# Entry
Amino acid sequence: MATTDTLGSSVGLGDEALPVGFPMPRRPELLHASTPRLRVRTVEHRFPFPLPNGWFAIARVGEILPGEIKALHYFGQDLVAFAGEDGLVHLAEAYCPHLGAHLAVGGKVEGDCIRCPFHGWKFDGTSGACTEIPYATTERIPSRAAVRTFPMVERNGLVFAWHHLDGGAPFYEVPDVAEFGSADWQPMIMSDFVIATSCQEMAENNHDFAHFKYVHGTDEIPDGEEHIDGTYKRVSNPNLERETFGLGLGVVRVPNVLTFLSSVTPIDEDNVHIRWIFTAPTSLGAGVLEKIAESFTLGVTQDVPIWENKVFRPRPILTKGESGIIAHRNWCAQFYSTPVELPDQ
Ligand code: FES
Ligand SMILES: [Fe+2]
# Structure
């Protein structure tokens, strides 16, 4: 359906070729940043929940070298990431508390600190405290002269930052996935892409068993056992197990074939940055891992046009077998600083 602007003409909609489903087409080019995405939705601000609290990947290990600085945008804000001379990656809000310069634009790493390009104030990468005002005439540096920093951890080839809307401390851990870094498993391969959706919506897919048949073309609707324990969640059947650690990390295992890590980082309330890391047993030989990774990656291109054009139904009409979706939504609530209204079901 087309919408009408004030001049009475049709705006934008209806000119794009719509995909034909059952199943949805697999389109590898959708994952390249330069490919325009189908957008017939005009609804903005689709999700009633805030940015989630949790561990979220902000870079690959080795992506930011000692002394390097990167401007990033995650968690709905401008950020600066830098690796200290010891190689540890720090993440801080981008803007200097003095007069607001962007620390990534001309800033300089010194030890494990970053020096602002505007007037040379120096900030500690871990605490965020200002440790030096080079031209100050007083000894005392006010405690308010600090940038907000994020707790950091490196695991499974990724650098994770702890994001909490109210500045709260970490309340769960990023697991060590044994397969990554094991001699019995192949060197990891990674793909990454951006999708207009939220962490909660993307993860809801794992509890939506019917869509596997209609979107992905499986012969039958699969089922799965669902298990929830605090911030941890698992969905499994004999062919596949998916463990979830908060809203930023999933570990998928297809026994003896593949282990794959799915990291989802909120860019803002409506967009996420996905990083997928794959490994397979060395006994499978060369070339197999690439093929399996490609098939998983192609699968998500079937979801993308649906995710990017759907809305969130706060009170969905569900069949009996779909109660896992409500359990998932209730589980997600613990990662939000403000309560989300959920249906009375
Ligand atoms: S704005 Fe950063 S030191 Fe002045
Ligand atoms: Fe899917």
